[in-house]
Amino acid sequence: MDLTTLATQLNVGAILPETIVILTLLVVLVTDLIIGRQSDRWTSYIAVTGLLASVGAMVLQWNQVETASFLGSFRSDNLSLLFRGIIALSSVVTILMSMRYVEQTGSALGEFLTVLLTATVGGMFLAGAEELVMIFVSLETLSIASYIMTGYMKRDLRSNEASLKYLLIGAASSAIFLYGSSLLYGLSGGSTSLVSIAGAISGQSLGLLIALVFVIAGISFKISAVPFHQWTPDVYEGAPTPVVAFLSVGSKAAGFALAIRFLTLAFPSLAADWQVIFTVLAILSMILGNVVALAQTSMKRMLAYSSIAQAGFVMIGFLIGTEAGYASMMFYLLIYLFMNLGAFTCIILFSLRTGTDDINEYAGLYQKDPLLTLGLSLCLLSLGGIPPLAGFFGKLYLFWAGWQAGAYGLVLLGLLTSVISIYYYIRVVKMMVVKEPQEMSEAVKNYPEINWKAFGMRPLQVGLIVTVIATSLAGILGNPLFNLVNASVTTIPTFNAMMHPPAISVAALPPKEDL
């Protein structure tokens, strides 16, 4: 193979967004090493600028010819670009959350940004990986960086405990996933490409079924699906809140991107089997996540179980295996980015001002901070699926795609559990708004004076306003966004052969009076 052919097959232009993030990471790291903590504010804006430039590179690559790079181990197509964009944007909002939070804890912000960008790179590569070695290296890059961020507050015993639990359970899940991948490697006669593995394996065998179960177990850990969710509540409660926000969106999006590519490319002959397995996982996640969330007294634990339930909703779109299903799934992940990160931004603002995240301590918050109350209320109501917010349209598309595909039981269960979720979301809103002045909690009574200025806002406030506006407008602008995710599915020949029903659009939905 000559040098020209090798350069063509490597096709490094396909990973331009990842290259920008890696260069940003190096700049942040070197700046922090040379200048020290005095550079914290500058490095934060450098990191945000680099991530936004990476998103801009993805926009330029949108709808270009589907390209494979690194000898076929990574594919840049609209599907991977959308997932990579979700991961990069989640990191942008996480950095806005982290600047004041990490500064107040006395930890080094430059080191935190370096680890966060490393996790971002791992997640972005995972979104387009189509080869076993690339998948595992990307997965471990994301996972190890996540373990470090979870225990980043070294003086906080809860953070240390959360990191240890996450590390132990995560190491076990990685080992299970690796064992399933090694079984595939052996059964395929030494192939590492997912497409080659599918071509080399014919029929069903016990070894292939074991490999399928082990791979699904590793993926389910990453997306927090029941019964692989045990780490989620403890890690969410103990880890730094910005880290929790990234895990709830960025890590989950990377997990679903891995699920789509791995299962549809490597296991096309076992599609019926893994769809049955994910049906069970979706049912368990929706039921357990929403029911247990009712009993929580901590906002972070409540959102932990909420994220488990949200994974169950997203799995409806994934397991039905249609264009409409995949498109509705990606649309929901796109709006979940804003409404969930908006909720965590509000939690961080409240905890920085009061030192607590107990739900009862939010009583009477409207009297002291109306804007924070409005932002948190909109994000929670959107997560619950209240119209006309973005979450309502996201669930509408998911359930309608499931109904079209004949998954009536899953859709009805999703509707029922959504009603349950509305109760614990509205409970928080009621706590903030309905309480009389004399019923204020002690934390709200001692709430510091707030000055929301039009200019010179702190990064947390900017992040809150951006996410709340996106959460509100995404529902109104749902059709353009849904056309965007439709394009990420319909332009991919690999999946077209597997997904025959047409993609849904807003025009295809029933009239509102019929819903």
Automatic annotation (TrEMBL):
GO terms for molecular function: NADH dehydrogenase (ubiquinone) activity; oxidoreductase activity, acting on NAD(P)H, quinone or similar compound as acceptor; quinone binding. Keywords: Membrane, NAD, NADP, Plastoquinone, Quinone, Thylakoid, Translocase, Transmembrane, Transmembrane helix, Transport. Residues 13-99 form the NAD(P)H-quinone oxidoreductase subunit 2 N-terminal domain. InterPro entries: NADH-Q_OxRdtase_suN/2, ND/Mrp_TM, Ndh2_N. The keyword rRNA processing does not apply. One of its GO terms (cellular component) is plasma membrane-derived thylakoid membrane. Its main location: membrane. It is found in: Cellular thylakoid membrane; Endomembrane system; Membrane. It is a multi-pass membrane protein. GO terms for biological process: ATP synthesis coupled electron transport; photosynthesis, light reaction. It catalyses: a plastoquinone + NADPH + (n+1) H(+)(in) = a plastoquinol + NADP(+) + n H(+)(out); a plastoquinone + NADH + (n+1) H(+)(in) = a plastoquinol + NAD(+) + n H(+)(out). The chain crosses the membrane at residues 12-35, 42-62, 82-102, 109-127, 133-152, 164-185, 197-221, 242-264, 276-295, 302-320, 326-350, 371-393, 405-426, 462-482. Its EC number is 7.1.1.-. Residues 129-421 form the NADH:quinone oxidoreductase/Mrp antiporter transmembrane domain. NCBIfam families: NDH_I_N, PRK02504.1. NDH-1 can be composed of about 15 different subunits; different subcomplexes with different compositions have been identified which probably have different functions. Belongs to the complex I subunit 2 family. NDH-1 shuttles electrons from NAD(P)H, via FMN and iron-sulfur (Fe-S) centers, to quinones in the respiratory chain. The immediate electron acceptor for the enzyme in this species is believed to be plastoquinone. Couples the redox reaction to proton translocation (for every two electrons transferred, four hydrogen ions are translocated across the cytoplasmic membrane), and thus conserves the redox energy in a proton gradient. HAMAP family: NDH1_NuoN_1. This is NAD(P)H-quinone oxidoreductase subunit 2. It comes from Pseudocalidococcus azoricus BACA0444. The lineage of its organism: Bacteria, Bacillati, Cyanobacteriota, Cyanophyceae, Acaryochloridales.
